[in-house]
Amino acid sequence: MSWSAFLAAHLRLSWRRRWQARRLHGRAAAAPLLAQLSAPLADRRQDWRSARYLALDLETTGGDAQRDDILSFGWVCLEGPEIRLDSARHRLVLPRRALNEASVTIHRITDDRAAAGEKLRSVLTDFLAELEDRVLIAHYTPTELGFIDAACRACFGGAFLPLVIDTLDLGRRVCAGQAPGSLRLPALRARYHLPRYAMHHALSDALAAAELFLAEAEALSARGRRTLGDLLLE
Q: I need a surface site. Which of 148, 207, 210, 232 has the fewest CB within 10 A?
């Protein structure tokens, strides 16, 4: 990406974050989101190995962020190319309604486990504090971004506006011309000879995305794309 494109993207996101922060200023209930919006954005020009990241995965009751619920968060932080396993978190969220059998078959979170979950606002507050000025990593980010944005609007009254890296997007860049199925998380991990993990557990999927990100970032670095900006979702 050219420097002018870097600058335009940075200014666009910065303006949106400042506008949201001004709108939320003085609202005590919005403090967790306001703190995250007020954190400085990572410099897109720095080597990606010097940036800080947080890999996230969510399990939900369905694919509609406006109607369905988040059931669990899984996240792990990275300091450059180092995955900090001591930062790994798995948090269950209390859903608003009983679970349907079809979704339980996928995520294996039953009604009794879900009933022991925490309030969404509590988990979201801790997640936003952990994210701080980190770059968000996820595989196929529309899911995570859509649900976290809907949750932030419901709990705090504002939008979720982080810097984002999508490991599916990076996979598309590395594996240009591949069939759509080859961009799924397990398929991309197999390409880099990463271990197989059971899917649909938020923490293991977050860790899987973190490991895949490092493999993809190294592959792109070998092609001369070494800055954080080279890896960000455009």
A: 207
